[in-house]
Amino acid sequence: MGLAQRTAEPIFTEAEYLAFERTAEERHEYMDGEIYAMAGESPGHGSISVNLIIEIGNQLKGRDCQVFTKDMKVRSGPLPKRPFDTKGLFSYPDLVIVCGQLKFLDEYQDVLINPTVIIEVLSESTQHFDRVAKFQRYQKYLPVLRDYVLVSQTEPLIEHYHRDSASAVWQYVSV
Question: CB of 119 within 8 A of CB of 135?
């Protein structure tokens, strides 16, 4: 899943986006003041996502970690300094894992701010955004994120990036 099309010309603040998104029937991502409608899911994308949820959910049983599906937002970006600031990203990763205590943006508990692992199933139309813009922001603004995993729909390929908590350097992990 990812950015499909812009839905509005004006620049929105994060607060305006969240007010809009919490009443919307469809999901939208937010990036630096722009609101984007989410693209529909292909059968292949859905199948891969469901299989990942089942496998990872089973592996996490009995551990202090929880897996969330594509309906949980993740915020990455600088904290707004003024109410009208627009710099930030709200995304809907395909899978999000949080180990330890859940931390949310606010009392609505619909925006995670402490993901441990983010997994994206790549789509042809959004893979560049997932690989570049999202990953850059995740690296910079999510200090507790330890793993970013990209799963191809078109070939048997999984790309795994890991950040060691001691060095804070991201490395590609051979799968």
Answer: no
C-alpha separations of 158 from 64, 81, 148 in Å: 25, 38, 10
Cβ neighbours, 10 Å, residue 97: 22
How many Å separate Cα 127 from the centre of its chain?
13
What's the start-to-end Cα distance of the chain, in Å?
23
Residue type, 140: K
C-alpha 56/C-alpha 67 separation (Å) is 8
Look at strands 111-112 and 73-76 and give their pairing. parallel
SS3 142: coil
What pTM was computed for the model? 0.91
Per DSSP, the residues of 91-116 read: E--SEEEEESS--BSSTT--EES--S
pLDDT tens track, the chain, 175 positions: 444 455 545 689 999 999 999 999 999 999 999 999 998 889 999 999 999 999 999 999 999 999 999 999 999 988 777 777 788 999 999 999 999 999 999 999 999 999 999 999 999 888 999 999 999 999 999 999 999 999 999 999 999 999 987 778 999 997 7
DSSP-derived 3-state class of residue 164: coil
